[in-house]
Amino acid sequence: MPVFHHRADPIIASPLPAGAPVIAVHGLSFAYSDGHVALHEVSIDIHAQEKVALVGPNGAGKSTLMLHLNGILGQHDNGRVQVSGMPINRANLPHIRAKVGLVFQNPDDQLFSPTVFEDVAFGPLHMGFAEPDVRARVERALGQVGMEGFGERLSHHLSIGQKKRIAIATVLSMDPEILVLDEPSAGLDPRARRSLINLLRQLPITMLVSTHDMLMVRELFPRMIIMDEGHVVADGPTPALMSDAALLEAHGLEMP
Amino acid sequence: MSLAPSLFTSPILASATLLHIPDGFLNLVISLLCWLISLAVLAGAVRSTQRQFDERLAPLAGIMAAFIFAAQMINFPVAGGTSGHLVGATLAFIVLGPWLGMLAMTAVIASQAIIFQDGGLVVMGANILVMGIVPGVIGYGIYQMSRGRSRAVQLAATGVAAWISVMAAALVVALLLGASGTTSLSVAIPAMLGIHALIGLGEALITAAALSFVMQTRPTLVQDGAAVGQRRWVIAGTLVTLAVLLLAPLASASPDGLEWVAEQTGFLDTAQNAPYNILPDYTLPFLGETGVSTILAGLIGALLVVGVMFGLFRLLRRPRQAS
Amino acid sequence: MHANTFDRFEHRHSLIHRLDPRVKTVITLLFIVANVLLPDGAWLAFLAAWAFLLLLTVLADLPLFYAAKRSFIVLPFTLAAITVMFTLPGQPLLSWQMGSRQMMITDAGLLRFVSIVIRSWLSIQMAILLTAVTQLPDLLHALQHLRVPRILVAIISFMYRYLFVLADEAMRLLRAREARSARGWAGKSGGTIWWRARVAGHMVGQLMLRSLERSDRVYNAMLARGYDGRLLTLNPHRMQPGDWLAGVLAAAVIAGIQLLGRLPPI
User: Taking CB atoms and an 8 Å limit, are C219 and B59 in contact across chains?
Assistant: First the structure.
């Protein structure tokens, strides 16, 4: 069996039509197989270069929504999810997964290979790039998160802060159009959190970030979406929503 | 507290090592023979898993192999300073299904040998046979007989399955050592069985308790993948049990037979100074004369027979099909 | 505390560390096979094999007795071989009365026993050396090139990655049990054996469910990055002339030791 083989046509992102949202979700509802309804009629649009925070209590449906953006939960019950104008279906999946860089909350789930290099190379390899391209992408992605030279390191030897950075690199190497992060600052000590915030600020890429870290939201994200019990209850400029004490309190959020 | 000292000073590894054969204790022919059997069975496992085309299998089996490894660290005091813990084959086969369970156990054994030198490299085929295939197939076969019955019967069967699987593994180790001319069978068999009667108790209790926990909290997990094609595993388990059981008395009754094998295979060891003669006596003074070994062996043999009878009883009286 | 303390790789930049992992794996296996083939009492050959091992240790920039110090894990198993001292026929060396029975150690038996222990001791030292000079991911690449089925290599690779994560989880469970179990003054554990087994079994069940859930999340993380069932890896290793040379040299040494062990005594 050949150790390395690639598709004839590597997945290369087609340009986004001008003015179209990177992510368009309309009237999405979803229930898990145990009957638990996680999403009710959720609609959001995210345009290129936006940095959007997704907040709300645990169980609000944030993570479920994020999994849908990558087509991981399969068919949704109704509603529409489009990534770069493409509906989510079996044929589009490889393209959609290359465009949406989804980073899970626990870096130990995200980093499943023994070495950092293998993990960052996983995406590009499955997109069908040839070896030199894969290596170049790994180098670049590690550079983007400030982890140059960590390729040969073993994942289980890294600190949590380092793991979080590498987890982001594992999707940056796929050149996504949007970065979708699930609670990136959770579990970090103040110094690691600060360095992560600086990293997120520097990355010139569209972002949707779920978090409980309201200080980070105020600092980094001009737009904020509040979810509760599967509904989008508010979507607007962060300063406006942050000053609405009644709204925040109603959904278990604290004003920073 | 660091993990390393607790891992290596604890009785966990010390007792586990009796099943992990190091290099140098089996002769090359026996080692290769074991590799041959293990590879043939593993080839079936690989083919069968690849046929399923389930992309989930590789991460699932890998993480569950890591689980078996970690679960071996969880011990509990049994008696007299010994502690019970898991070998894990029966549990792995029940949760993952026999083929994937076999691959997971192989990964556990390979990693223990490669990372911790717990078990040799050239004898790894034997260790896979002893700790993965033989106990797994026997344990799973007996467990399958109880499918569709009440939870209590299933758990009891699981416990019996786990105990017998460990005893069988110990017996096979003794036989392999004897066939390699590394030990005397009349001592090795009762000694190995005696020690593992206790270790097997830990295996049985933990396996049954773990399964009971899963049945309570996530019953779908052990009910999925039931029924079809499982009967052949019952048959396979019974056959392996019988093969192991028949080998043992045969070997103890005519140790010359196995010594003959050792001698024949010993052709590679050119400088065996003393050629084999008819051995003067095969009993060891400090065990044989007191009769302890005989009594112990008899006791264990009786228990084994009871276990197998239980299993056969289940097999024969299986009127209603689980659905 | 961190589980990586039980990772046995020693980071160095030696000649041996830089060798292709395939060469190291094959030579290790060859050494152990040759070892097992050495006749009983081939003292010179045993000595030569050990010298070869020490040479490799020095070349690997490790302390001279690095492997020897870690080789005691085989000790409990030597018990299994002790009986051959008594049962192998030969000239009696030592005999004494025990009860009504004559205990007798024969020369052939002692020779066999000592040889078994030495062979096993040499083999495990070589295996320790291999682990110390080769990162496991590199070893896995070697296995893949040596035609071990991809699925098995993938399973071992996932296992290696999550070994540390799950061992940490098991340690946390054990500590939680420790924190809640009061022990009597004699260090006696409470409860019946059934109860204790139930607690341990529930911990195992707990750990199992968490592991299954983790395997779901990991699978999702793989899907999110385009996993489609193929297990692709890049191969960072190329056999260089130096690798071939080292391999051939080592094989020649091993053959030489074998010859030494089989020469008729002068």
Answer: yes
DSSP result, C231-252? ----------HHHHHHHHHHHH
Q: What are the backbone angles phi and psi of residue B19, rounded to the nearest 5°?
A: -95, -20
Q: How far apart are CA A13 and CA A174, in angstroms?
A: 10
Disruptive mutation site among A154, A157, A166, A173 for chain C (greatest number of C CBs within 10 Å)? A154
Residues from chain A contacting residue C231 (CB–CB below 8 Å): none
ipTM (interface predicted TM): 0.87
Tell whether C69 is covered by a domain. Answer: yes
Test B3 with C171 for CB contact under 8 angstroms.
yes
Q: Any CB–CB contact under 8 A between B53 and chain C?
A: yes
Q: Where are the alpha helices (DSSP H) in A19-85?
A: 62-69
In a domain, C32, yes or no: yes
Q: Where are the domains of chain A?
A: 23-250
- Give domain status of residue C22, yes or no: yes
The strand pair at A206-210 and A223-228 is best described as: unpaired
* Mean pLDDT rounded to a whole number for chain B: 72
Residue B32 Cα distances to A26, A145, B36, B258, C155, angstroms: 63, 50, 6, 17, 24
The three-state DSSP-derived secondary structure of C37-68 is HCCCCCHHHHHHHHHHHHHHHHHCCCCCCHHH
**Are the CB atoms for A223 and A241 separated by under 8 Å?**
no
C199 to chain A nearest CA, in Å?
27
Residue of A nearest to C166 (CA): A108
User: In the predicted model, is pLDDT for residue B137 greater than 90?
Assistant: yes
Q: Across the interface, do A97 and C222 touch by the CB < 8 Å criterion?
A: no
Q: For A6-20, B175-189, C24-38, which range has the lowest pLDDT when averaged over its residues?
A: A6-20
* Euclidean distance between the first and the last CA atom of chain B, given in angstroms as a whole number: 49
Residue C72 to chain A, least CA–CA distance (Å): 27
Torsion of CA A219, A221, A225, A227, to 10 degrees: -50
Q: How many domains does chain C have?
A: 1
Min Cα separation C265/chain B (Å) = 11
In chain C, residues with a C-beta closer than 8 Å to the C-beta of B286 are: 98-99, 101, 103
C221 touches chain B (CB under 8 A): no
CATH number of A23-250: 3.40.50.300
Q: What is the pLDDT of residue C175?
A: 86
Q: Which of B165, B166, B172 is nearest to B144 (CA)?
A: B165
Grade residue B270 by pLDDT with cuts at 50, 70 and 90: very low
Enumerate the residues of chain B whose CB falls inside 8 A of the CB of residue C227.
Answer: 55
Length of chain A counted residue by residue:
256
- Tell me which residues of chain C, numbers 4 to 63, contact chain B at a CB-CB cutoff of 8 Å: 5-8, 28-29, 32-33, 35-37, 39-42
CB-based contact (8 Å) between C179 and chain B?
no
Q: Which domains does chain B have, with CATH numbers?
A: 10-264+282-316 (1.10.1760.20)
Report which DSSP code applies to B132: I
In order, the DSSP letters of B46-87 are: HHHHHHHT-TTHHHHHHHHHHHHHHHTT--EEEETTEEE---
Percent helix / strand / coil, chain A, rounded to 5: 35, 25, 40
Q: What is the pLDDT of residue C85?
A: 79
Cα dist from C104 to B12, B178, B285, C89, whole Å: 34, 20, 10, 10
Q: Which residues contact C142 (CB under 8 A, 6 or more apart)?
A: C20, C21, C22, C24, C25, C134, C237
Residue closest to B177 by CA, chosen among C103, C79, C123, C121: C79
Could you list the residue range(s) of the whole structural domain that residue C10 is in?
3-135+238-262
Q: Which of A50-64, B88-102, C29-43, C74-88 has the lowest mean pLDDT?
A: C74-88
pLDDT at C75 over 80: no
Q: Give mean pLDDT, residues B274-280.
A: 27
Residue A171 and residue C225: Cβ atoms within 8 Å? yes
Task: Confirm whether C186 is domain-assigned.
Answer: no
